[in-house]
Write a structure and sequence with these properties.
Elements lengths: L3 E7 L3 H12 L4 E5 L25 H14 L3 E4 L2 E7 L2 E6 L2 E10 L3 E3 L15 E2 L2 H4 L7 E5 L3 H10 L5 E5 L9 H8 L4 E4 L2 E8 L3 E8 L5 E5 L2 E4 L3 E3 L29 E3 L11 H20 L1
Helix pairs in contact: 1-2, 1-6, 4-5
Length: about 300
């Protein structure tokens, strides 16, 4: 694979894929680097109902595949690797990755976010042995089993609804007395007899032998503790931007998001940020697509001088 490009895009979610469609169509030699599956977090969405043009909804992996195929039609290249650093070398921006080093005239950072960990006893030990952060990846392993989803936002509800086709029962645990998900998602979940809601509750520890067997729960209002037997735990309590490798390069906000202007430009010429990873993003597929468009046009303008 070549190591010199006009544009290198870090992250293959909706923002990165949209940017790649624009840059590739403009005949800018473009590479997407993603450490996971192209599509990012939308791969976890069983159905996206608010993306224009799909009145019956579309599942996340299918939308990602269509975007990726559209960009590849114009010459986009892709590689699976993790970016470890970016630095300036003359006229080039050098992107260091676990798959080698790449040079570009412009870089668009669209690396999105990772799932936040709970940091409780048993979580790390049982990851891959009953603890998961992706129902699309691991849901089929829990066919006819009892599972728990932890969280109360849109992602957690999506996870619970996706698991209906596999699990025998789903317990959704949320630390507050109300869910944070949109009303339409809450209505969908409440209509499902397989889903039980356990509110005002936190998980204190995950226990088992070779695999997860039970959770220690605590009611946040009464302090009463209880045991819940389960075969699996899906954690969906929030997202953390993938910016650890950028701390010494770019200004970040308190949550670690990249600070940009309205053109998606950072304070370093030729480096742009877009989508969930930038400060102020409202983390919707539609806004990520818009951000990706702006970043691509800004990158082309920069390259053209």
């Amino acid at each position: 694979m070549d190591n010199k490009y006009d544009v290198v895009i870090i992250g293959g979610g909706p923002a990165g894929l949209t940017a790649s469609i624009y840059t590739s169509r403009d005949k800018l030699y473009t590479l997407i680097i993603d450490k996971g599956i192209i599509g990012g977090n939308i791969n976890n969405a069983d159905s996206i109902d608010n993306y224009p043009g799909f009145p019956e909804g579309i599942n996340g992996p299918e939308l990602a595949e269509l975007m990726h195929r559209q960009a590849e039609k114009y010459g986009l290249k892709s590689i699976t690797a993790e970016v470890t650093a970016i630095y300036i070398e003359g006229e080039n921006r050098v992107i260091k990755t676990t798959g080698g080093d790449f040079m570009a005239k412009a870089v668009i950072i669209a690396g999105g976010s990772d799932k936040v960990k709970m940091g409780i006893p048993g979580e790390k030990e049982f990851t891959g042995r009953g603890v998961s952060y992706c129902t699309t990846c691991d849901g089929p392993f829990f066919r006819n089993k009892k599972v728990v989803v932890i969280g109360g936002g849109n992602s957690a509800i999506y996870e619970a609804i996706h698991l209906i086709k596999f699990a025998s029962s789903i317990s959704l645990i949320h630390r507050r007395d109300k869910l944070r998900a949109t009303a339409i998602l809450q209505d969908k979940a409440l209509a499902e007899t397989k889903i039980e809601f356990i509110l005002n509750t936190i998980v204190k520890s995950i226990e088992g032998k070779d695999f997860v067997q039970k959770l220690l729960l605590e009611n946040v209002k009464t302090g009463k503790q209880s045991i819940l037997e389960t075969d699996g735990v899906f954690v969906s309590i929030g997202l953390k931007p993938n910016t650890d490798y950028l701390k010494d390069l770019l200004p970040l906000d308190k949550q670690g998001h990249i600070i940009t202007d309205e053109h998606m430009s950072t304070n370093i010429a030729g480096i742009f940020a877009t989508g969930d990873i930038r400060s102020g993003s409202i983390r919707q597929v539609t806004t990520a697509v818009g951000d990706g468009t702006v970043a691509a046009l800004s990158a082309k303008k920069f390259i053209d001088g």
